[in-house]
Amino acid sequence: MTNSTTAGGFLLVLAIVLPVVGVLLSLALGGRQAQRVAFVVMPFELAVAVAIAARIWRTHEMLQYSVGGWIPPLGVAFRADGLSAVMIVTSALLICGIGLFARTQFAAPRGAETRAPLMFWTLLLAVWGALNVVFIGGDLFNLYVALELLTFAAVPLVSLDGRAETLAAAFRYLLFALLGSILYLLGAVLLYGAYGTLDIVLLSGRIHAQPVTWAAISLMTAGLLAKAALYPFHLWLPPPMPALPRRPVHCCRGWSSKRRSF
Amino acid sequence: MSGAMLYGFCSTVLVGLGLYGLIVHPELLRKILAFNLVGGGVFLLFGVIARRGAAIGFGGDPVPQALVITGLVVAFAATALAVALLLRLFQETGRAILQSDKLTDAPSDNSQP
Q1: How many domains is chain A built from?
Q2: Domain boundaries, chain B
Q3: What is the pLDDT of residues A137-182, one digit of tens each?
């Protein structure tokens, strides 16, 4: 049961695929349409988030989707429990709020298309997709890739206005994020070496307290903290700012899923 | 087994060197290179673990090898993004170090003459 796709599992795929389709459409259609694409994607994605939360609320069971039908020891699973449903809904609400708030600042220009609005709306959707992967990823390496995706989407968003201090802040953020993610990856590879799986649920069955576990957990926690503790550095940045403090909360999720494994 | 141990030690050394460089050097290009060094160490560790998990008929566990390829792509993308950002920063400011690093360095230089 825990190793197969549950009934509402396709919702999890939708939660990831919708923003990604939005990103691709924005890039294909160009700067004038990017905002429109974002505003079309937002209500659908919000609806998917609410549907995931409602289903979990009703059934009290974890949603699961096995990608490509491969079950976790070899494949990658997406899972959503109550906590990740709450996070998905929260980030959906936040990003819709950011979109409404930034509507005027990054409105599509009348004349020639400029890069800032195109990039803003595209990256906003990219951040959204990456956040959802982070929240429902059921595999430590998948989480690493999702965290890097989040970094790659968030760093250009931070440096969008191209001023020198903004670029410096973005670079500082990128360095901390890269250091954090590589420490996290080191922890993940140690766990794989010790237990032979990266799937969080399988890992929670096999893990036990021994030095390599403590080393891996502390590396991963340090990595996630390095990524999370950085957000006060760009408090001056108005619109994308609310997208960034999600990270500490994710950190809590990382903690809790590790906690679950003990 | 001893070969795997040797590579394991190599990866430890690489991670240590990279971490040192990442923390100590103020020049951003060196920081990027140091990050790649840490990444190299971690990927080598993946290789070691793949080798250690070798079973009958396999020279190594295929899963970590697949992960290494993904990790390499991610690290390459990160490096490209960092270099692009660094170039832009250099165009804007004419410097390739972060301003506040100099500011934080200055008092520490004064405090330990």
Answers
A1: 1
A2: 2-111
A3: 777 788 888 888 888 887 887 777 667 777 877 888 788 888 888 8
